Amino acid sequence: MPKIDLIHGDSLLVLPTLPANSFDVLITDPPAGIAHMDAAWDDFGGRSGFIAFIHKIFTEVFRVLKPGAWGLVWSLPRSAHWTATGIEEAGFEIRDFISHVTATGLNKHPCSLKPAQESWWLIRKPAPSAERIQPLNLEECRAQGRIPSNFSLEHTDQCVENGIREIKGQKTRERTPDPISKTGWGFKRQGGIVTYPTDEDGYEVLPKWICAPGCPVDALNLQVDDGDRFFFVAKPDKEERHLGCQDLYWQRTPGLTGLESRVSYTPTDFVTWAALPDDQKARGNIHLTPKPIALLRHFVKLICPPLTDNRSCQVLDCFGGSGSTALACELEGVSATLIERDETFVLISQKRLDALRNRMKLAATRAGAVPSEAAPSESVTPPPAQASLLPNTSLTEDRFRQLVRRSAKKH
Ligand SMILES: C[S@@+](CC[C@H](N)C(=O)[O-])C[C@H]1O[C@@H](n2cnc3c(N)ncnc32)[C@H](O)[C@@H]1O
User: Fold this and answer.
1) Are 109 and 30 in the same domain?
2) Is residue 330 part of a domain?
3) Which residue's CA is the closest to the ligand 1 atom numbered 26?
4) 67 and 125 share a domain?
5) What CATH number corresponds to the domain at position 306?
6) Same structural domain, 253 and 372
7) Could you give the number of structural domains in the chain?
């Protein structure tokens, strides 16, 4: 049975208490070390202080991961090389770099570009022999039939998923499991055939999206046919962010600088909250940077070893934040340990996780998978399906017509 542990504490102190070689993978979203928006928690006194911090944490992460284990570690373009230096000095191999294109950031300074992408380092703890290395789950993570790339895109929250469409699939290639090769898969022309998810007529069924202006998936589709064959996720919306946290009320106290990161939040009750001026009211998940659950689920699927002997994969996240990794692991049925030093965020993570579990139980009850007594007594609005925590808003008439015209031109 998968288990999620939310630990309140500083990873510098908690990691040394965990047993060596006990985790299968790492998925984590550390600070960027640039005093982002003047935030104290992101200020390590510059390059050398930040690299020393990452080095120290990742030396412990190295110890607790199993040999050959994979990891995905978030970074910002400006300090990605510092993050990677600290990780590499702790003993990890840097294997790749996944760019996640969002296109939705705002530039906050005349000397900075509009932030449109974030990066995830794909890392691996070396193993004494090739057999100990777990291949990536490429087959399970095919993006619209293709091997997953080191590039992912995010729809904007105005984009709408609207039915399905069919496109010609790729040719089937012959491949065979190969225990000798490092990856575990050879390309010898013998043995098993890996089929792509096409119908008999060679066509694939894909979701159809109507994209809002500025959507990066749409922009790529204008450049190349079928740009949306790259993995893409819907932007996390308010519902995903605040899941289970609607009853958390905060008094917002701006800092002297007026920057969001200097704002402090004091928990309060509804009656006190209701009497506050609007600019002092905050409600729900107050974490500044929750990551998209769909992206984290993709990562879990990509790097977790398959389950064996009823043993679940153990995921470590040593910068837990508001618990998005825990939610992704719960949805994927794998175990996770999250460490977060801010008590407030541990509480928020627990509430998000509880609400998700309630929804999953309710959805399972509706589908007839578990007896109705297992349904939660509190009233929650269930999503239509487990994965659809990500509703979309509607599109303007003009944009719709523009898309229809473009699609008519293409065909
Ligand atoms: C970028 S956020 C993670 C956000 C998370 N991925 C989510 O989706 O909510 C980084 C988190 O690491 C926490 N943190 C920073 N240093 C830490 C440390 N030494 N030990 C544990 N947590 C730490 C911060 O409080 C912050 O919540």
Assistant:
1) yes
2) yes
3) 321
4) yes
5) 3.40.50.150
6) no
7) 2
138 and 274, same domain (yes or no)? no
Q: In terms of DSSP bridges, do strands 65-75 and 23-28 run parallel, antiparallel, or are they unpaired? A: parallel
Q: Which helix (H) or strand (E) holds 331?
A: helix 324-332
> What pLDDT score does 83 carry?
98
- Residue 4 pLDDT > 90, yes or no? yes
The verdict on 253 and 356 lying in the same domain is no
Residue 167 counted as domain residue: no
Mean pLDDT of 275-281: 93
The amino acid present at 396, given as its one-letter code, is: T
From 103, 80, 410, 385, select the one nearest 232 (Cα to Cα).
103
Please name the amino acid found at residue 253.
T
Q: Which residues of 266-298 are buried (b: 16+ CB within 10 A; e: fewer)?
A: eebeeeebeeeeeeeebebbbbeebbbbbbbbb
Which residues span the domain enclosing 314? 4-158+210-241+288-410
Ligand 1 atom nearest to CA at 53: 19
Ligand 1 centroid – CA 324 distance (Å):
11
Find out whether 348 and 322 touch, Cβ atoms under 8 Å: yes
Tell me, yes or no, whether 236 and 111 share the same domain.
yes
- Quick one: 322 and 218 in the same domain? yes
Q: How confident is the model at residue 224 (pLDDT cuts 50, 70, 90)?
A: low
Beta strands 160-168; 117-124: pairing state: unpaired
Residue 90 above 70 pLDDT?
Answer: yes
Residue 253 lies in a domain: yes
In a shared domain, residues 259 and 388: no
The pLDDT score that the predictor gives to residue 185 is 40
Among 123-127, 178-182, 280-284, the range scoring the smallest mean pLDDT is 178-182
What residue type is 47 in one-letter code?
R
- Where among 228, 262, 283 does a domain terminate? 283
Atom of ligand 1 nearest to the CA of 28: 6
If you take atom 2 of ligand 1, which residue's CA is the nearest one?
A: 321
CA neighbor of 327 nearest in space, from 295, 305, 303, 304: 295
- Ligand 1 centroid – CA 32 distance (Å): 10
- Amino acid identity at 243: L
Q: Residues with beta carbon inside 6 Å of ligand 1?
A: 10-12, 29, 31, 41, 287, 289-291, 319, 321-322, 324, 339-342, 345
